[in-house]
Amino acid sequence: MTGYGLASFEDDTFILSVEVKTLNSKFLDLSIRSPKQFSDKEQEIRNMVSAVLERGKVNVSIDFSRKVGEDLPVGFNVSLFSSYYHKYLEMSNLVGADSKDLFKIALQSPNVMTQVTEKTSAAEEWEVVKKYLNIALINCDGFRRDEGNVLEKKFKENLSVLRSGLASISKEDPIRKERIRLRIRNNFKEWLEENDFDKNRFEQELIYYFEKVDITEEIVRLSTHLDYFEKNLKEGTNQGKKLGFISQEIGREINTIGSKANDANIQKHVIVMKDELEKIKEQGLNII
């Protein structure tokens, strides 16, 4: 389920911004971008995220910068620089070369400048980061819940269309059965009068045929699946996978009704129901 959360803080010493983005995923796939001074806190960040956001592709971005910085991000080996410079100057004077770029050359010489690793975050700074990370996570979760409420409303509309189609099929089914009986009676009436046959065996074959085209059980099961889907829709979290399985069963019953009924009027309703079910399956991927 998509989501977005942002929390920021600023005082006289530093500026903090925490951003959380989520996309659809069956599992928790977490990516963290944070300053080096918080690199030792990655596992704690992961624990905080998993406690609030159970599933999804999650990107956490933490931006932290101090307003006043006395320490330089690089270090200088002054004595080594001096040695380089005077040596280059001596060589320059020896050959009579121009010495105006010696300062730049000496500064860029090996080991004169070194990268300074940022200090580990102070405890009070990390507590502030934790606080606003939690706020961002809660905001993101709230975003997802709002989206979930919209999805629930849409699911109920889809279920209403499916129930309407099922009701229409239930009305069409007795008419379909009567058409089948009349067709068999008219087609075989003359043949039955002119030919000798085993009436018991013929009745058995008719019963078997009517059982093959009967969709009563499928209608009952489909109605049960729709009720069960709506029931789970109203229950707590972690219903995404279960609703996905129920959707598969609903699709199986709709397909069976379409193949067994072999009726043009019922097929019209089946097509509409299949289209509506695809909408449910597509949106179902957004449910945690």
Automatic annotation (TrEMBL):
InterPro entries: YicC-like_C, YicC-like_N, YicC/YloC-like
Pfam families in UniProt: YicC-like_C, YicC-like_N
Domain of life: Bacteria
Annotated ranges, domain Endoribonuclease YicC-like N-terminal: 1-152
Cofactors demanded by this protein: a divalent metal cation
GO molecular function list: hydrolase activity; RNA endonuclease activity
Keywords: Endonuclease, Hydrolase, Nuclease
Domain Endoribonuclease YicC-like C-terminal: residue ranges: 170-287
Family: Belongs to the YicC/YloC family.
Protein name: TIGR00255 family protein
The organism of origin for this protein: Belliella baltica (strain DSM 15883 / CIP 108006 / LMG 21964 / BA134)
